[in-house]
Amino acid sequence: MLTGGHSDAAIMLKAMRSALGENDMMAVRLIELHRVLKPTGSLYLHCDPTASHYLKTLLDGVFDRPNFVNEIIWKRTTTKSDFAQGAKNWPRIHDVILYYAKDVTSLKVFNQPFTKYDDDYVLDKYNKIDEDGRRYMLDNLTAPGAGSRGHPQYELMGVTRFRRYGREKMQGLVAEGRIVQPSPGAVPRFKRYLDEMRGIAVGDCWTDVNAVNSQAEERLGYPTQKPVALLERIIAASSNEGDVVLDPFCGCGTTVHAAQKLKRQWIGIDVTHLAIALIERRLNEAFPGIAYEVHGVPRDADAARDLAERDKHEFQKWIVATISGQPYKGGKRGMDRGIDGYLHFRDADNKPQLAVISVKGGGIKSGDIRDLKGTMEREGAALGVFLTLKEPTREMEKEAASAGLFESGGKKFAKLQILTAAEVIDGRRPQVPFGHTESLKRASRETDDRQARLL
Question: Which of 19, 234, 253, 289 could form a disulfide with 279 if both were Cys (CB 3.0 to 4.6 A apart)?
């Protein structure tokens, strides 16, 4: 960083290192994002108020201060009454979105979003209804005099004023019935229809986009999930159909979901196999038949073996997520009590049931199956799933069969099921009632409908 071409960024980073310690991850990524960004492109960085001031300083160094465009405040929640009663500080209810251009003089795309008028405003201002049932208001047609912008002065319906429009356009409006004289001798007014208005232009303080709470329909169970409406607003404002959107920290895929919905091209990057598996599932459920490519995840047994040899923990998260399981404690490292993941499902009586998952990315033995049986008994699990890189031995298969069967709705399922990585890659999944699990919520199928209220 210090010897690279971004001298301003290096100076900022050196100063922040002195004050805050070494944590250069974001600096390196911002420089690379600046490098790949088109001259006409822009970058949005979402952060919380505890980091926004440091990141803004860093972005000034990477992008150059004149290319700062906006600091957007996103009100993501409301104040909780129980917090307010014993509060010692102002409740923190907003995040920050920093908006920079690669070159502000070359920035060509900005599609101003609008929101609907407030009902009280409509009733107060657009308080007239014509014979066609269209709501309208009578707006001003006068303009400042010749000394400011040179607006023309002429007589209209017996009244002389400086006018907002020239004579020819004004006569056209009169012919259309758009000019109204409220009373004889009164100043003519313009008939402005509500259904012709786009609404209120959205500024840099967003209070109309709700966070993804525990009851939200779009919630998938990913801890840092952002609302689709938030990303739709950003993408719709700063790109056009067919443009390319890149999210280098795509998490559960909200950005690529919104980009696909708005007919943009897109690239998403994440370092965890859990995130990639969730994004694949989300896209397939929301956009059936969607075509995309995934790079960096196992597509055959050799690739699975390579992942296990390089990082057994990532292999574990990948294979658990691929069968739609939920990694133990979200995939965090630590004591797992013999559990690497869960599958949640319902039986024929709609009763919630649990399957525990055990993963082995190295050597295996029949004792591993006995350990899983013990874990199932301890956890009260209806089923157990043993995921292995290597082929199970005949003794392991016999041990699994000895666990018995789980009956539901007149059907029988092996209580302990063994799947190899190769079988998982080929599409085989654990057998559970109704053939589906509920570890992560399914994404709703998208239609062509857009969230016009935010666009």
Answer: 253
